[in-house]
Amino acid sequence: MTPMPATREPMPPATAPPKPTRDAALAACLFAIDPIGLGGIVLRSRIGPARDAFMAQLRALLPATTPIRRLPAHITDDRLLGGLDLALTLRSGSRIAATGLLAEVDGGIVIIPMAERLDRALVGRLAATLDRGVVSVARDGVMTERGARFGVIALDEGIGDDEATPEALCDRLAFKLDESMLNDHFVWPTARAIAQARARLGRVTAPEATAVALGQTAAALGIASLRAPILALRAARAAAALAARSAISEADAILAARLILAPRATTLPAPDQQPDPSPEPRQAEPDPPPEARQTPPDEPQPDDSGPDPTAQELADRVLDATRTALPLDLLAALALLGNPPRALGVTAGKSSIAPGGSRGRPAGVRPGRPGGGAHLALIDTLRVAAPLQPLRRRERAGSDAGPRILVRAEDFRIKHFIAPVRAVAIFTVDASGSSALNRLGEAKGAIQLLLADCYIRRDQVALIAFRNRGAEILLPPTGALARARRSLAALPGGGATPLALGIDAARDMALAERRRGARPLIVILTDGGANIGRDGKPGREAAARDARAAAQSCALAGLASLVIDTAPRRNPFAAELARLMAGRYLPLPFANAAALSTAVRAEAA
């Protein structure tokens, strides 16, 4: 029999290379037409020629007089919102308010570099200002408001899903662009064309059917925020103005849904319900008598008109067009999950924060005296003392000439810092006996799972193995995945169990890391079969006594600990060690790498 010739199946659309799109350029044009109404752009891209070219084209579309400011990473509240002008206050002897950055950029653009690392408090102030459009400034003891309406360009340089622009800011910005969308397959309009569209924007009308269609599309895509359809309607109005139309058309609504609603989708649209192929015929009902059809005049007439068929048809077409515009990776993820993804916790990708100290990120000032590691905040000290200079000079009237600026102890302000606390998980693994290979394999997998997000969490892991007559540090505290893999490549097993020496080695490492400012966690993987004491001599009773003493020394040092019982059945001695260490006991006779890493993360949180 002659074999059938091999046929080549076409490549599915999901694996086809993405085609160049004009969405990024179109989003930039719409933003240039209505920067304040659309909120802004989140651009997830690394520094490079593509991003620089996009930013240059966007600046060229804006009026030459548009104020543009970059937001410093560690900007103070006085500089952001407005506060006391120290130089003029010292010169005049009375409070003189200074204009903040947000008020200076009223009607312009704020560029936020490294938006994925914005402080939570700063995000809250930006979000509140975007909502209100004003900032409150104290002047002569009275709170006044100044206009602060601006658009935002958030430059997101994060790596992975754990580093992203905060959702509270993304929700208020219309467009979410990716580095892959930046290309030169677009003929940019001139600044004059954008200016003409900006002048026509106020005269563009939005039919009710368009608002209904965008709202239904957002609901079908699982978008919970009401800001998304509002921003989509504003984008559709800007698109109509760019096309010199007096009203929003279907093409404008589809473009707005593709640019704004599709990137925010959290679920796949439900498939259209097919009609029943064999519906049962309904029997005709007799008409009611005339007196039954009368409605009292004080009651509202029932509305049996139902939804506007024109709005429903438009909503279906917009939804169909948006479904085809969903990104391929998002489409595949949503189809795989089948359910809308849950939001990540607020602690995802974040390290613990330690307040105080003399190192770390500046976090304001507080009253206090310099010394003992505390640094004087000179400018803030002078800011507090400045309004009191006239009074203090009058108090010194008649005395000898003194300093021009009178500063007292109660005026001192010292700098306040917060620094991320480095967490160190110290795995202390029982490498003895016939089950050592399984236990060590699980420890290797757990360490590599924990190291996968060490770049984001700034955490570290270490590995100590104890067997025969001693304990050996196989992996010092590190966050380097390549180094950990090399150290874990060859790990011997078998022999006796010096459990006390393993606990002592973990305690010494934990104390050393705590002195360096880290937050250590001792993780002991053992089946509880200690048979070698601290002196290196065999004997189960002496080995158990030394292990209890080592566990108590960890508790006295206040070290966090986790004892993982790897015996086939629960070992009471392992549970006793956890109690003596004031730690947690976790029996995992059939543990795997994922279970271990999950347990360690939960304990270290």
If you had to describe this structure to a student in words, what would you say it looks like?
The protein is α/β, with parallel strands linked by helices. Helix 17 (436-451) crosses helix 23 (593-604) and helix 20 packs parallel to helix 21. The longest helix has 17 residues, at 499-515. The protein is flat, with a radius of gyration of 33 Å.
Please tell me what the overall shape is: flat
Characterize the main sheet: 6 strands, mixed
CATH domain fold name of the largest domain:
Rossmann fold
Let me know the CATH homologous superfamily of the largest domain. Answer: von Willebrand factor, type A domain
Helix content: 25-40%
CATH class of the largest domain: Alpha Beta
* Total beta strands: 18
The number of domains? 4
The whole-angstrom Rg is 33 Å
Poorly predicted tracts of residues: 1-20, 273-307, 331-351
Secondary-structure class? alpha/beta
The spatial strand order of the largest sheet comes to: 15-14-13-16-17-18
Question: Which second-level CATH architecture of the largest domain applies?
Answer: 3-Layer(aba) Sandwich
Task: Quote the distance from N terminus to C terminus.
Answer: 67 Å
β-sheet strand percentage: 15-25%
Mean pLDDT: 75
Number of helices: 23
